[in-house]
Batch of 2 targets.
Target 1
Amino acid sequence: MKIYPYKRLGRPITLRVTSVSLKLSDGTRDPLDTSAYSTQEQAVALGVAGHSDWVSATIGLSATLPPGADAPDAAWSDLRVLAVLTDGETNVRTSTPLTRDAEGSRDWSGHLEVLRDDHLGRASLSAYAVGTVDGVRGRSITETDRSWIVDTVSDEPVRGLRLDVRKASFNKSSREWLRAYGDAPWLVDTTARVPTVFVNTDIDGIVGLLDSNGSGVESKARDLLVAQMATDVWTAVFHGAIGDLEVEPDGGPVFPTDWQGEVLREMLPDVVPGVHVEEALRRVHRRRTGEAGWGELQTRIHYAAVRRADAAKAVGFMIRSLERTNRESET
Amino acid sequence: METGEEFGPWLARQLRLAGKTQAELAKELGLTRAAVSAWIAGRSTPRPTVMTDIANALGTDVGTVHTRTTDTQAGLPVTWYHRPGYPDGGRDLGNAAAFAFDADVQVLARETCQNSLDERLTENGRPVRVRYTLHELTGEHLDAFREAILWNDLFPHYSAVSETAGNQKVGRVVDAGVRDMYEKGRLVLLRVDDYNASGLTGDDYADGKFAAVVRRQLESLKSGPAAGGSYGLGKATLWATSALGLVLINSTLSEPHEGRTERRMIGRLELPWREVDGHVYAGPAWFGRPDPDKPGAEVARSWWADEDTVDRLLLSRENDEPGTSFLIVGAHDVASLEGESSDQDGGQRDEEGPEDTRGIERMHGRLVEALGRDFWAAMVGGGGRLPLLEASVRALRNGEEVVPETKVDPSVEQPSRTRALRAHYEGATVDRLTESGQVASRNVPLKLPLTGGARGATLGTHQAVLLVTEAEGDRDTPVNRVHSLRGNRMTVRKATVPNLPIGTNPFQAVLLVGEAAGGAAPFAKEAEEFLRAAEPPEHDRWGQTEELTLRWSPSAYRRIQNLTTEVNSAVRELVARPKRGRGEGGEALRKALTVKSRPRAKVPTGPVVPVLDGLDATIGDQGEWLITAEVKIPRGDEIVPMVPVAQLDVRSGGRPRLDWAELVAVEGCEVENGTLRFPPGTRRAKFRGATDASSHPVRTTLTRLVVDLRAGKGA
């Protein structure tokens, strides 16, 4: 629980994206369709238009303060509202002041400039109301409680991190490291910007099966394959995520901010159930770096991966489908 | 002096009403029959002295004869006429048209408002004004009103119906209505007024709007081709809404009838077949003046009432603008019960509330809601265009205002759609949405078939107008819907757009088809006609109807399905990004590899873990943090010891940890070496602490404190 040494507003700011446009390398601007962002997912996908040569993006913003920000008896003065874009990977933090729409209005708006070179992938966008409290300037009075995700690469404004899937012929790929794994049907690379699954096109029919959207036994087989792959992937990304944790002065792990953080937040509740994710991370970290308990934890990690992959469902459907096929062939 | 109608026709009607012949009057006045005949034919007028004699002969005052704004009270008084039973012994146990509807003020609002729109006087370009008044009567106000409608004459009929009520729907409703009035001592009236509409014109019996509403069933006489109804069912909702089956009408006509326009009154009662005092009655009854021209002078016809009578019947109109006032006596709203249970979750409910179908405040809310939902488009103007409709709702109790008159405001009820339509009228639409608040406009084709069923042949392609804009705020629900409307601007179809990708920004859409698409749209008139035929009595969709089959072809409805498909794909194009084939590895795998937030941790067995439930902190004199924390503990036999940890919040990196100078158990726990231990079975605990100011890296007033509990010793 967090405590501030001064009075603040109890309710959060609501922040909306109202427009997105890209500045291209030739100096022109391309206003993106409103489908480049999703107010429900609170996500902006700057890769939507398929431009490879954009330099910066301008995001139109509108923030609504909770009631009471302008109360005459408020403990703060010089109220200002800032939009802040932070990137956990590149450690870039950009703030832009917003301006009040009208005298006495609770709505503030403005534009945030996102430089492409400042970001690798996903940055987080929030709004802060700041004021002077007890003579100290720029103290935060309230913030957004859920920040927006600005993804400079993705072409789909979804909040959830989507792992990348690539097809490649392992034996002939320009990624030479893949050649060593020519007999594997798929591989996970957790060192990329987001974890990437490579599907080996040298295994005949695997791509066709994954791409199929028919019904019957074929779709059940596909689901079973997907479940098997997903179990592998989730196990790998979990290990990847806890492998390189930043450590606090007291030896405790710092919760990561990029995809590792999202993966951990998703899986830790199943790995160490019943405790807060930060506590869960500490326990996992202790077991990994300590003397004992790492082996015992593998079952939990595997379990968390199996659940994410919906393996039980896929197996169940497969079995029922086989039973049906057998019955039909008997009659 | 203000004078009403011509003397001749007026006198003729007074004589008929009084049951006198011209000869009899001549004799009473001591004049020749030819003189009276000349007056009636309009060839001459009586001298002023004779006027007084005429007044005496008719049993009225000379003023009435001079002004002729009302009928004399001479002759047969206003009364109830009950249609006698059929000679073949047939029995109607209710009006089939009224059966089509349940008592639902929202349906009533839709039907009546639509009628008013259809009857709007178009020459002056002004909107038709519709006002709904809910009026609850109790005590002496109720008595006075009952006297005005001759309740004592009606009561035997209601009793007779109640006796046989047991197994007939209409009978039961009427029985419940009468009992509610007596048991609760109240009566709810719902009055529907329209102004700047044509009024109930035409003869009492011959073809015309009056007869269509008052005398006939299932007849529709609409003023224009864009009109809403085509079944004549709408008016039945008036009677369906009355638990007593009773509706009184006062109309100001746009075209004079019998030389008059104001205060044409009639009442109509819908009861099932009944037997009273040995006479059998077919069902309906009329409240009016017995018509001397009909056999036995029994049939009641409309009469021109004086202001006083109209007042007593609570039907006074606020000015002389043409239009009609319907007074639904004993209004109830059965449909409101449905919403009740789902609207409230857990909140303490008014004991009376859920069963009361006659609460006027609730009906008020439901009327505003329905009008806003179905008629928002008719209330929107813009680009030099006036709205077609203004609507308001108010509620009174014994003449005192309970809920003030609420003008239904489309920009409140349907904010985003209103913005869209206004932008369309003002020509401010865009081709694609790049900024929130914009309105995108697209043409969508509707291929009209040829009449007469030539297979596959197309008469022409109508271009409907589709408007899409971002939904406004959280109240603008349900989202992602298309409201479709045609010429009369009533929302007919409300459909959700299917197959939208996850995370699509909430939007609202409007489809303007037929005459709503504007006069310049090709085949607007034909499209209007086609859709009108495809509209069922509920006015809630376009699809297969018998009329469509008969006039076009059995497959004609597919043209509408195609329109819907076109609309949905146009909407998707505007609001969703196009699907690109970038996704490698198949949809199923990509779905399985999305990190979704789905907190579904299994509850563990074993020791339970306490959590921090409340935290209070202040800065002490030495610059230390003083905290008081509350701990919540799940039910369990064994409780994990916890270590409270104080840290300073930072933007990134590790949080500096503060040392405790003091840690004191207040209740439900013990402190041992900086660890909190809880006796088994504890559910809540409290502790105090103070940080060691010397361990603070910065001035305390510039820090943010984070306190949490960590399990085990080694934390």
Target 2
Amino acid sequence: MVRLTIDGKEVMAAEKSTILEAARSVGIKIPTLCFHEKLHPIGSCRMCVVEIVGFTEPVTACDTQVIEGISVTTQSETLFRMRQETLKLLLSNHPLDCPICSKAGECTLQDLVYEFGVTQVENRLPAISKPIAPYATPMIQYWRSRCILCLRCVSACRELTGAYAISCGKGEDGPTITVDPDKCVSCGQCVQVCPVGALVENKHPDRWRPWDIQKIRTTCPYCGVGCQQFLHVKDNKIVSVTGVEDGEPNMGRLCVKGRFGYDFIYSEERLKTPLIRENGVFREASWDEALDLVADKFKKIISEDGPDALAGVSCARSINEDSYNMQKLFRAVFKTNNIDHCART
Amino acid sequence: MTNPVKDILKSKVILVTGTNTTENHPIIANYIYEAVTKYGAKLIVVDPRKIKLVDICHLWLRPKIGTDVAWINGLMHVIIREALQAQPYIDERTTGFEELKQCVEKYSPSYVSKITGISAQDIEAAARLYASEHPASILYTMGITQHTSGTNNVKSLASLAMLCGNVGVEGGGVNPLRGQNNVQGACDMGGLPNVFSGYQPVTDEAVRQKFQKAWNIQSLSGKPGMTVTEMIPEAGNKIKALYIMGENPLLSDADLTHVEHLFTKLDFMVVQDIFFTETAKYADVVLPSACFAEKEGTFTNTERKVLRVRKALEAPGEAMEDYRIIAEIAKRMGFPMNYKTPSEIMDEINSVTPSYAGIQYDRLDKEGSLTWPCPTKDHPGTPILHISQFSRGKGLFSPIEYQPSAEVTDPEYPFILTTGRVHAHYHTGTMTRKGNALNRICSEAIAELNENDAATLQITDGSYVNITSRRGRVKMKVSVADTVDKGVIFLPFHFAESAANKLTNTALDPISKIPEFKVCAVHVERA
């Protein structure tokens, strides 16, 4: 363990841990922007600068390891000004389009600018000509003008997804992130880590604000991994899906199906009423009529051909409680074990 | 899975076989990437297709399709020949080692090479790599199981894992990655013809008595029922009526034209689903059900983790939760099922299913998930199976001989067809193909053909081919790539308009009754 002092408080930190981790372990908050808990420190934004007694220059807390005996200051007039300058620099070519930005209300940059009381930005750079740049997947929109080049998306695509699709390159008028369409798997992890409104979903025209939605935690309905996801619901409609950061097994990750594949729910083709086939044509029916018909037919077949003339295909997608009930229906009510599902396909 | 997903990060060696993990289980692939790139795990890929994981693996073996028992025996031959096996583990925890040793003796690298097409050197290298570091994890999916030798393939992988002491240890295990969100749960809940919930056999008198008492009835049948692959061929014969809940066999089963014909022979068919599926067209009654976001409940994932499903939306129109529809049918047949909520059903599951006895909604809401077996309310769950001993006592080595696939190529049908999924779609597309999002990424089925074969047949990338088997014909767009080997064509099976399963063979594994989706003989020509 390493002993150090942070804001006058004695802290014991693990070897090779960072000053940021040590501070957080005792509840001292250092502002961050590019830092993300799941990623290696990026060190691109300099919001987390701190002073160390005896050091001539402040250091970044996210990627500076603890040293035995140092005394760290996280809040001072100088640091406040430095952080304000950092934010002003970011704002110098970041459009102040918060009213139309879908990230407003949950934007880290917006929160920091508010916290540090930045009211004026001198030397604003001219706006870039094309605010929206093409992206590798139709699922995502890249608002290049809003990108602060924190590189979280680059790191997440490497470290969390392993796709290595995103890198930082040179655009027509300055640096930009570039995405290789052959490597992009449309998982949207880059959207989930983007601290501003640069990477946003490009799914539907619906608009919502974070305070309009209810987040409901559930389990993804696709493959067998069982990813934990939040359904963001506004007015009985899912507007987006995000991974639950501390939920096993996915720990925040989702794939293209888990994140974007929910619009089938609203398909016009959903079955909304029971149907009965009559003379080769289906017609709508009431529940009572349909269920009576089913029960009568089953009873007739059981009495004429025995219970083993009935067979059931249960469901590998429905919930456990449905599966349990289905086998109970076949075994307890119909008196046959002819119940199976598509585990083999 | 014997082990949890996060254990992959603790594996020193990962053997991936018969799973295109990046496409089908992307999040598990993320873990494999992390294990390899961050923690230095060694990755062995054994797959006939050049899947994406090959890019980061240390060794890739490309067996001829359907020769899995041979290469696994080859690996075990080398491990035993070079005395790399975990002898103390074998002596203490397993039985049947001598029989296995005798069986694999003839599977020398050169003999195996002739069957599998893998070089003798690569067989040796893979064996040494797998046995070199501990723990080693094996991950597999349907590329291993969807063969007439599927059960044998799995038993062979289990032997390989036990041989190196990799079962019952953190970071090890034999791990099938299950392809559907609740296929584990559907099995756990007794959605199988031979067992009640928790794999309690219907043939066991004491088990039947327990369920009779719990369900308040006089009798239960002790005769195991039919699997799907057995019941559908009996349509119109032994089987007069089918009740299908949330499945679409008319796209997912082998030899669809035959299945279609069989459905017309039924007296009565009920389909309960969220969409009017290919199968629903043949129904007499179609019942609308609620989808995952419209109901409370639980799924059990591939790790045996029970996870909550929560209601976020109202179901459209008159659509209803499946358990309520079932209860309504039961009621009309003189059997009341008075569950007010799914949590009441879980209470009943707890009372009759020892492995689920400690899994309640309030615990799940608090703890996030619980992994069965979880026999009591204060049990933490069992993320790793077989830790101190195997469920059956001693781990059994099964000596298994290689047998060829049911259908092999001939001059008339010279290509091997193999099927699978693509990452933007899921199973029969009843969910992924009904919205506009995923269809924007992948709107059409694309077959994969080797560049040499394409040149010989004068087929260009992006053109269309006709693929014919003894059972049917399908027209599909083709991608010319090095993903598949010479003599092989890969088809995704999600697409009703070019349904790969019109071609596949219904030959079954004799034990699991799984069809051989991964191998059949076809003819390929320009369309």
